[in-house]
């Protein structure tokens, strides 16, 4: 098999829709604005904590800036006084310096504790928002936005934001406060030397502007490539059976190798940008320090400046460039977090496919289950020009079981998705007991209607927990009754009965057993309408018979739409609709359609031939 490892090989064949590597200026500005709005919204409820942290930081910086002044006082006043036999001024300067040190340590601890808690609260809320919003997004979005990318948003992107929050207030605000305070003190000590220092701001401003632009682009790429690495890993592990069965390991390794190289190169570019910025900042700082030392020495020798004042000036100048190093580290973390915030904001800004009504309308109790498609037209968002349903109308009376058959692409599954409100029609309306589904609260709709898919999903955990999804508040006796109602006798043979862990995706159970569990959920939920989408198509004959027997219990006195390729399932239907091109081409009972010939009779004959 092919094991191509060319780093330039195209990855588009994999069908993974991912973030663009290139971002236009307009798109970049919009993404940055979205990220800022998201941060502001997250911090708004925590204004008090932010203000308190800022106050602690201001006081800490004031205490810290007092130290060099006390050194100057000790050199220019305390030492000469001590030499004259008056040690009190020197003692007070030393005691004041020690008190400042202790106060600074206490304030630092208080700030770190408060800012750390604030950062974790922000992360908790952000993680909660992304998870909640992603669950409400349309199926189309989840099909195009792979699970690996979403995992990347909730892991690596949040880790980047966590790194920023850990040093955010300290790295940015602390550095800015220190710079502002030290600048004022430098001007007060000696305006001439301060002018030399301030002249160095010109190259620093140019360097900072260059760093912002270059690092933002670099970190956008790192966010993109780490997402692709995670996508490849998740896809490979989810499809591990196919990978091993078809000996695809080498090909997967080839793809991962290329992605890893791209991710490494993006990170290397970001680190190279940071290293150049830090090196240039330190070069400017050291040159400025040398020049100040030279000019300051000349001013001291000429009597224009006291030695203690020069000492304090140099101490402040050393501290002046330390915050610049902190700012460089902060800006590096900020650019990485900003790119991550842009990705998260883009997820949160994605509109929900089927939004909740502003003023939901309730269903009359009890729900009868009449389902009506009133002149519905529909096209999938990915291909809006192709109508899957061109003005489709149908009324399913309460309690009637209808089977939908037809060739692939006829529109059967689309009808079920519209009835379940996974999508809304382009025009027309889908109504339940005369109420437009768009006017129903989602919780009311899910109580009234349940969909059973071809491959039912079981979560890791006990079988009882998986059945209880139908009605989370159900008692143990009600869960057991639902299991017995669908004839899931296999439960009694499991090691721990209803408490048996079904493992990941229900891997401990067979396909037929998983389907029986999904039908037990329906019995427990007790909906008025049941949608069955190819519920028996992946089962063997014995399992299919067991599921069909369970369906008689599940569908009794309920409205049902059955999408079936195996026409054995059609026998339990009151009415069969043969669909083609999004329209009904035949309508009648199974016996009537078999007797009259036509598409249904042809499908039935083809099905019987396949059995032979």
Task: Outline the fold blueprint.
Blueprint: H1 25-43, H2 47-83, H3 88-136, H4 139-144, H5 147-154, H6 156-189, H7 191-199, H8 201-238, H9 240-245, H10 249-301, H11 307-349, E1 371-378, E2 389-396, E3 401-406, H12 412-419, E4 427-432, E5 435-436, H13 442-448, E6 449-452, H14 463-467, H15 476-485, H16 511-525, E7 529-533, H17 541-554, E8 559-563, E9 575-580, E10 583-588, H18 590-596, H19 599-611
Parallel strand pairs: 3-8, 3-9, 6-7, 7-8
Antiparallel strand pairs: 1-2, 1-4, 4-5, 9-10
Helix pairs in contact: 1-11, 2-3, 2-6, 2-11, 3-6, 5-6, 5-8, 6-7, 6-11, 8-10, 8-11, 10-11, 15-16, 16-17
Describe this entry's structure for a reader:
- The chain is of the alpha/beta class and 612 residues long.
- The chain is built from 19 helices and ten strands.
- The protein has helices spanning 25-43, 47-83, 88-136, 139-144, 147-154, 156-189, 191-199, 201-238, 240-245, 249-301, 307-349, 412-419, 442-448, 463-467, 476-485, 511-525, 541-554, 590-596, 599-611, and strands at residues 371-378, 389-396, 401-406, 427-432, 435-436, 449-452, 529-533, 559-563, 575-580, 583-588.
- Strands 6-7-8-3-9-10 form a six-stranded mixed sheet, with helices on both faces.
- Helix 2 (47-83) runs antiparallel to helix 3 (88-136).
- The longest helix is centred in the middle third of the chain and has 53 residues, at 249-301.
- It is elongated and about 120 Å long.
- The two termini are 36 Å apart.
- Mean pLDDT is 81; it is low at 1-18.
């Amino acid at each position: 098999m092919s094991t191509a490892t060319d780093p330039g090989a195209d990855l588009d064949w994999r069908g993974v829709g991912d973030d663009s590597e290139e971002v236009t200026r307009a798109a970049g500005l919009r993404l940055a604005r979205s990220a800022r709005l998201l941060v502001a919204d997250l911090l708004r409820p925590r204004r008090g904590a932010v203000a308190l942290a800022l106050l602690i930081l201001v006081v800490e910086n004031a205490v810290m800036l007092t130290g060099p002044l006390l050194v100057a006082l000790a050199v220019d006043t305390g030492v000469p006084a001590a030499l004259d036999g008056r040690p009190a001024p020197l003692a007070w300067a030393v005691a004041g310096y020690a008190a400042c040190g202790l106060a600074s340590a206490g304030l630092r601890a208080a700030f770190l504790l408060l800012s750390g808690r604030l950062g974790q609260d922000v992360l908790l809320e952000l993680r909660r928002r992304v998870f909640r919003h992603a669950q409400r997004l349309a199926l189309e979005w989840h099909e195009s936005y792979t699970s690996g990318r979403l995992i990347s948003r909730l892991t690596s992107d949040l880790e980047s934001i966590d790194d920023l929050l850990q040093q955010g207030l300290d790295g940015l605000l602390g550095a800015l406060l220190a710079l502002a305070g030290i600048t004022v003190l430098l001007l007060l000590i000696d305006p001439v030397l301060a002018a030399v220092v301030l002249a160095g701001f010109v190259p620093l401003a140019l360097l900072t502007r260059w760093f912002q632009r270059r690092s933002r682009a670099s970190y956008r790429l790192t966010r993109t490539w780490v997402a692709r690495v995670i996508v490849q890993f998740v896809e490979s592990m989810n499809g591990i059976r196919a990978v091993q069965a078809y000996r695809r390991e080498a090909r997967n390794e080839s793809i991962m190798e290329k992605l890893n190289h791209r991710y490494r190169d993006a990170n290397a570019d970001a680190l190279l940008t940071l290293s150049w910025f830090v090196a240039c900042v330190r070069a400017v700082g050291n040159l400025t320090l040398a020049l100040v030392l030279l000019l300051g020495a000349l001013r001291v020798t000429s009597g224009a400046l006291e030695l203690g004042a020069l000492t304090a000036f140099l101490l402040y100048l050393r501290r002046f460039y330390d915050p610049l190093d902190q700012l460089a580290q902060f800006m590096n973390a900020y650019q990485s977090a900003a790119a991550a915030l842009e990705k998260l904001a883009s997820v949160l800004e994605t509109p929900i496919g089927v939004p909740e009504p502003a003023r939901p309308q309730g269903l009359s109790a009890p729900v009868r289950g009449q389902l009506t498609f009133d002149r519905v037209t529909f096209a999938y968002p990915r291909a809006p020009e192709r109508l899957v349903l061109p003005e489709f109308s149908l009324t399913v009376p309460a309690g009637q079981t209808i089977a939908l058959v037809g060739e692939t692409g006829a529109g059967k599954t689309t009808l079920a998705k519209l009835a379940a409100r996974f999508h809304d029609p382009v025009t027309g309306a889908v109504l339940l007991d005369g109420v437009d589904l768009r006017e129903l609260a989602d919780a009311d709709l899910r109580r009234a209607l349940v969909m059973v898919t071809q491959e039912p999903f079981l979560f890791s955990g006990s079988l009882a927990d998986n059945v209880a999804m139908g009605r989370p508040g159900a008692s143990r006796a009600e869960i057991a009754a639902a299991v017995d109602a669908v004839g899931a006798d296999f439960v009694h043979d499991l090691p721990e009965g209803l408490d048996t862990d079904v493992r990941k995706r229900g891997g401990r159970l067979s396909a037929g057993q998983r389907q029986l569990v999904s039908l037990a959920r329906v019995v427990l939920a007790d909906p008025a309408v049941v949608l069955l989408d190819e519920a028996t198509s992946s089962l063997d004959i014995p399992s299919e018979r067991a599921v069909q027997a369970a369906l008689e219990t599940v569908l009794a006195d309920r409205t049902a739409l059955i999408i079936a390729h195996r026409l054995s399932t059609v026998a339990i239907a009151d009415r069969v609709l043969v669909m083609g091109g999004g329209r009904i081409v035949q309508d009648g009972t199974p016996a009537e359609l078999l007797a009259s010939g036509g598409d249904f009779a042809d499908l039935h004959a083809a099905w019987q031939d396949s059995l032979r």
